[in-house]
Write a structure and sequence with these properties.
By secondary structure, the chain is an alpha/beta fold. The protein has 13 helices and eight strands. The protein folds into two domains: 178 residues, NAD(P)-binding Rossmann-like Domain (Rossmann fold, 3-Layer(aba) Sandwich); 91 residues, N-(1-d-carboxylethyl)-l-norvaline Dehydrogenase, domain 2 (Orthogonal Bundle), CATH 1.10.1040.50. Helix content is 49%, strand content 11%. It has an eight-stranded mixed β-sheet, with helices on both faces. α1 links the parallel β1 and β2.
């Protein structure tokens, strides 16, 4: 199936942002909410925001016109899903609410319509029984704010067909998003990593190692600075896998199994895979030319990021809370 018509169920900031992205890409998008009045109000907001984003240079010229042209409202949920190729559920993150909404969607959608859920943590297997024809159901997890965050997690259930996944990947490619398919497990990848970082950060503060403000400063100015360009495996390859393995000894001695050296890393070093330094890394092999190009790209990327941060200036800061 090739997707051309889309309905977003849940027209808040998350669903509305998804609607904007797909409308700008040329898809015919309908938004629906708990009431027609809510959907109509959201449509006005999305059109206003698109104009503001374009004026501020955050949307390309002509984007606001595409949002105005390609997003419509004015229908009940049942009417809005009746003839869509793809329906994305984007209601708030509660299992009972999502199951109820998905049940309504699948009851009124075409039998062949693809149904996605924007859940950020709930496995497909906990939602799929609410959906008729489960072969057309999967997680399509955008991140907020959707107009500016390109990555999308895809999770297929046991019944989801390869054709369903392929159709959604084609949609994401057309909209300029980047999809990554992951296993059906709680939290998936994005939030498992994000929450692990937050958990360790709160432990650091609770132990008196650093203040919350200093933790944030360290994250955004060091390894977080790199994450816009490289994931953790690419960063480890660049830093040296033997270096990482040696550092894990300190962590394992201090914190035990919780921060023990990962088997993947131990096995790589044992096989003389040290990363960029010897051309053999976790992500594969690097010849001399590729390694040189990668280092040049990295240096340019980090310099550009420094320039951008200087141009933007510091982010607004929260006032200290009452003690």
């Amino acid at each position: 199936m090739t997707i051309s018509t889309v309905t977003i169920v849940g027209a808040g900031y998350m669903g509305g942002g998804i609607a904007q992205v797909l409308a700008i890409a040329g898809f015919d998008v309908t938004i629906a909410d708990v009431s027609v009045e809510n959907a109509n109000a959201s449509l006005e907001r999305l059109q206003r925001e698109a104009r503001e984003f374009e004026e501020q240079g955050q949307f390309s010229p002509g984007s606001a016109d595409l949002v105005a042209k390609n997003i419509s409202a004015g229908k009940s949920l049942e009417e809005a899903v009746a003839d869509a190729d793809f329906i994305e559920e984007a209601v708030f993150e509660r299992l009972d609410v999502k199951r109820d909404v998905l049940g309504t969607i699948s009851q009124h959608a075409r039998p062949d319509a693809i149904i996605g859920t924007n859940t950020s943590t709930i496995p497909v297997k906990e939602l799929v029984s609410a959906v008729k024809n489960p072969e057309r159901f999967l997680t399509v997890h955008f991140s907020n704010p959707a107009p500016f965050i390109p990555g999308v997690e895809l999770v297929a259930g046991e019944a989801t067909t390869p054709g369903t996944v392929a159709a959604v990947k084609e949609l994401l490619e057309k909209s300029g998003n980047e999809g990554a398919q992951v296993a059906d497990t709680p939290g998936m990848v994005l939030n498992r990593l994000q929450y692990a970082l937050l958990k360790e950060a709160t432990s650091i503060v609770e132990e008196g190692v650093a203040t919350a403000e200093d933790v944030d400063t360290i994250v955004r100015t060091t390894f977080g600075f790199r994450l816009g360009f490289f994931g953790p495996f690419a960063i480890a390859d660049q830093a040296g896998l033997d270096v990482y393995a040696n550092c894990f000894v300190t962590f394992e001695d201090a914190f035990g199994d919780r921060l023990a050296t990962p088997t993947i890393l131990t096995d790589a070093v044992a096989a003389d895979r040290k990363g960029l330094k010897n051309g053999k890394g976790l992500l594969g092999d690097y010849d001399e030319a590729t390694a040189a190009e990668l280092i040049a790209y990295r240096n340019k990327a980090y310099a550009k990021m420094s320039q951008l941060l200087t141009e933007l200036g510091p982010a607004p800061q929260a006032s200290p809370g009452a003690s």
